[in-house]
Amino acid sequence: MQTLTPHVHWAQRHAELYLRVELSDAKNLEISLQENNTLQFRAQGHGAKGDNEYEFSLEFLQPVRPEISHKSTQRLVDIKIRKQEERWWDRLTLQERKPLFLAPDFDRWLDESDAEMELQAKEEEKINRISVESRVRKDPYLGLKKGYLFMYNLVQFLGFSWIFVNMTVRLFILGQDSFYDTFHTTADMMYFCQMMAVLEVINPLLGLVKTGFFPSMIQVAGRNVILFVIFGSLEDMQNKPVVFFVFYLWSTIEIFRYPFYMLACMGTDWKLLTWLRYSLWIPLYPLGVLAEAVAVIQSLPIFDETRLFSFPLPAMLGSSLSFSYTLQLYLILMFLGLFINFRHLYKQRRRRYRSRKRKVQ
């Protein structure tokens, strides 16, 4: 079999040399650096003269490091070599006359001034990154803040998981009968979780999280109105099936949201959990608001009948103003809040996947 020389293209940076060998489907690769600073290449593959054994040698202008990395693809062989000293070479080989098989790699080619600018940009990026990291490290309470947020999200995850598992097990065992005693079996834990959720309104104000104050306030306040005012104050509402659907939708959302934030505190990103966190809310959040609206509508005649929370009026205007009128106004505000929060969550989702796409590119 005839031995031939492949086409080789080269480029350089201050610290590295790049060789691109035009040899497809290369097999039996042998790449080594000899004691006289000469690179030896031998392989079998498809080159300019068809399938043959190809080889070449290059004696470099300056010393290089013995570690040589290479990557073989179906089209070519890429070789990267580190220079012993980071400096610009006038040419690649010790001999002044360039070998016939060697040519510049214009896809990677830079002149010395362009390479200086690239090196300077990398140095500036490194300095900026170190500066940012040093500013972050200057916060003496960073570990304490992350520990607090991790524990908060862990406690909420465990609480909502208990509610979700309890309701799911009772649903499988009792069927539809479990709808009517949901409040009595899970209300204590739901009270605890929703009182803890008030911290989600405080955390943005303290700068502990980057989420907005207003969307958090809308969600926490809306849920607490349903839990404490509609369900908690009216015994007639506590046995209705709508309690099951409200609690189940709330807990389903939260058993994915809180673990996502727990992992974020540790700088960890689990792709499946991230997708669930930024996708499940799209159907579940509107369904949750719809279930809350049903609960409000069902409570209106009860508030009219019991006159609970009614506003006293002067004698000339009547005895009192039913709280149900306030809840009717609240229904309008509820769907306005749905629009605001849905828009906020959609922006979060788009921003999250846009930044991830940039990282991949």
TrEMBL record:
Catalytic activity line of the entry: (3R)-hydroxyhexadecanoyl-CoA = (2E)-hexadecenoyl-CoA + H2O; a very-long-chain (3R)-3-hydroxyacyl-CoA = a very-long-chain (2E)-enoyl-CoA + H2O
Cellular component GO terms, alphabetical: endoplasmic reticulum membrane
GO MF: very-long-chain (3R)-3-hydroxyacyl-CoA dehydratase activity
Top EC class for this record: lyase
Domain CS: 3-93
Keyword vocabulary terms for this entry: Coiled coil, Endoplasmic reticulum, Fatty acid biosynthesis, Fatty acid metabolism, Lipid biosynthesis, Lipid metabolism, Lyase, Membrane, Transmembrane, Transmembrane helix
E.C. code: 4.2.1.134
Membrane topology of the entry: Multi-pass membrane protein
Transmembrane portions of the chain: 147-169, 243-263, 284-303, 323-346
Superkingdom: Eukaryota
Gene Ontology biological-process entries: fatty acid elongation; sphingolipid biosynthetic process; very long-chain fatty acid biosynthetic process
PROSITE patterns in the cross-refs: CS
Subcellular location: Endoplasmic reticulum membrane
Metabolic or biological pathway: Lipid metabolism; fatty acid biosynthesis
Pfam families per UniProt: PTPLA
UniProt keyword Cell membrane present: no
Main location: endoplasmic reticulum
Function of the molecule: Catalyzes the third of the four reactions of the long-chain fatty acids elongation cycle. This endoplasmic reticulum-bound enzymatic process, allows the addition of two carbons to the chain of long- and very long-chain fatty acids/VLCFAs per cycle. This enzyme catalyzes the dehydration of the 3-hydroxyacyl-CoA intermediate into trans-2,3-enoyl-CoA, within each cycle of fatty acid elongation. Thereby, it participates in the production of VLCFAs of different chain lengths that are involved in multiple biological processes as precursors of membrane lipids and lipid mediators. Catalyzes the third of the four reactions of the long-chain fatty acids elongation cycle. This endoplasmic reticulum-bound enzymatic process, allows the addition of two carbons to the chain of long- and very long-chain fatty acids/VLCFAs per cycle. This enzyme catalyzes the dehydration of the 3-hydroxyacyl-CoA intermediate into trans-2,3-enoyl-CoA, within each cycle of fatty acid elongation. Thereby, it participates to the production of VLCFAs of different chain lengths that are involved in multiple biological processes as precursors of membrane lipids and lipid mediators.
Similarity comment text for this entry: Belongs to the very long-chain fatty acids dehydratase HACD family.
UniProt protein name: Very-long-chain (3R)-3-hydroxyacyl-CoA dehydratase
